Amino acid sequence: MPKIAIIGTTAWGITLGVVLAHKGTQVKLWARTEQEAAKLINNGPNPSLPSGATLPPQLSITSSLSEALAKVQAVIIVVPSQSMRQNVKLISGYLDETMLIVSAAKGLEIGSSKRMSEVIAEEIDPNFQSNICILSGPNLSQEILNNLPAATVIAAGDETIARKAQKLVATPNLCVYTNTDIIGVELGGAVKNIIALGAGIADGLGYGDNAKAALITRGLTEMTALGVALGANPLTFSGLAGLGDLITTCASPLSRNHYVGVELAKGRPLKEITDSMTGVAEGVSTTLVVWNLAQQLGLEMPITEVIYRILYEGADIRRSAAELMNAGAAHELAGRKWRLFSFFKRYRGIPS
């Protein structure tokens, strides 16, 4: 029986633990304190998960890292992006060359602007870096916990490593694809949250589906432009970790980032909204990081620019949204330093 450790008692962490345990995997879920572990054991899963969800016998909860990480084939890290480095430092001494290290966080680190795989690589033994994988896709935890069908992506630099992780994570209702474009898969999972904030604002303002479709489509192009600038394969953004995750996060009322956008459109202060939530809306911090990246790269990212001004400069939402929808239009692939024309012309590297 395979053994997996999950670091993080987030809604997604608990969901992965439950579905993998139902598959027959022995899962150890690590809680930061004995009190947190005891609360989960006694009261069941996170209250943000669907009512009636129970912890299967194959899933156990512990506050001991040595117990959680003993003889496991993989460790899945499911924590907010801004605490990833701290958590990896805690577990680094328990890792060995046989363990797959899977990040299921969707964000970028404030300050360094690094992707989660880069943060992990900096904090572990260099000999283990080839075992780093990324799990990302259109995966709403409540739907997956309810055994609704879904698909996701496991990315690793080595296809062999990705396939090992694929075998461990796949379940009857969770189809897992592989990819070797770590940059694209991570950026897709992170930047789509910015676009989802905008989609929530559009819905909150009653702009309608035509406007939201335009926002999603232009957001996808913006995501792809950033990805190309940072070395990603543009085709990744048309897949599950790009377009798939973007559609889900922008359209579903279960999306935390969409919810924040809707509430901002109602006039609620950002801090009031985030303080009232049980989970983290990663788009808030990601907006700051991506805005800074765009400035450094001289990259035109109008949606990110508008969301940044709303979140961090107190810009008027209605005026900013109208400005975005009425922005001057050019060719769909044209933007300052986007490089999309040249890249799509020369790109031929489709894996067999």
Describe the structure.
There is one protein chain. The chain has 16 helices and 8 strands. With 352 residues, it is of the alpha/beta class. It folds into 2 domains: 3-180, NAD(P)-binding Rossmann-like Domain (Rossmann fold); 187-346, N-(1-d-carboxylethyl)-l-norvaline Dehydrogenase, domain 2 (Orthogonal Bundle). The protein has an 8-stranded mixed β-sheet with strand order 3-2-1-4-5-6-7-8, sandwiched between helices. Residues 348-352 have low confidence and may be disordered.
The top level CATH class name of the largest domain: Alpha Beta
Supply the CATH architecture of the largest domain: 3-Layer(aba) Sandwich
**What portion of residues is helical?**
40-55%
Number of distinct beta strands: 8
Count of separate DSSP helical elements = 16
Termini, distance in Å? 32 Å
CATH H level, superfamily name of the largest domain: NAD(P)-binding Rossmann-like Domain
Label the structural class.
alpha/beta
Tally of separate domains: 2
Q: Unreliable stretches, pLDDT < 50, 5 or more residues?
A: 348-352
* Rg, alpha carbons: 20 Å
Mean pLDDT across the residues is: 92
| CATH fold naming of the largest domain | Rossmann fold
Q: How would you spell out the order of helices and strands?
A: EHEHEHEHEHEHEHEHHHHHHHHH
* Beta-strand content: 5-15%
Lateral arrangement of strands in the main beta sheet? 3-2-1-4-5-6-7-8
Biggest sheet overview: 8 strands, mixed
Give the overall shape, derived from the CA principal axes. Answer: globular
